Amino acid sequence: MEDSDLTKLDWPYLMGQALIQAGSAAEMGEVPVGALVVDTGSGQILSRAHNNCIKLNDPSAHAEILAIRKAAEARQNYRLANSVLVVTLEPCLMCVGALIQARLSGLVFGARDPKAGAVISRLDIVELQWVNHKFWFINGLLEDDCSLLLKNFFQNKRNRSAC
User: Fold this and answer.
1) Alpha helices, H only, 28-77
2) pLDDT tens-digit map of 22-61
């Protein structure tokens, strides 16, 4: 997909949809991260997911992994070329690995993750010359909204445990 085609996608709307997923995660007591996989040609949302590690007793049930799995199932193909992952928080190393293995074209994320972000915060994915698939990324989309949701979630969690 050419960069000029990327302007056809409504990025704030898509991140808003990911934020809705993140809110659902928070309501369930899961870390509020939401993700979508979007077809870059049609703009169709192929999948939506949120963190579900606690409910599923699965440490790999991050929003990104679940969204990639659902999109691959929808496409009936484990390769997701011409698709982009939209996620509220910078992906961790596991999720970046899944993005690479699925051959997604790009990544759009909201908040940086200074503790575990594996795109620019803790690891610079562009610097890894040995990676067999490269993807473009946009960071900081609706960053304040994404960060506030996480901040409020953890503040509420701390307040509850202090009682």
Assistant:
1) 53-56, 63-75
2) 999 999 999 999 999 999 999 999 999 999 999 999 999 9
Within 10 angstroms of residue 104's Cβ, the number of other Cβ atoms is: 25
Q: Is 64 a catalytic residue?
A: yes
Say what angle helices 63-75 and 93-102 make with each other, to 10 degrees: 10
Rounded Cα distance between 65 and 54, Å, is: 14
Alpha-carbon Rg for the chain in angstroms: 15
Active-site residue, selected from the candidate residues 64, 73, 90, 143:
64
Tell me, yes or no, if the pTM score tops 0.85: yes
Q: At what angle do helices 11-27 and 143-162 cross, to 10 degrees?
A: 10
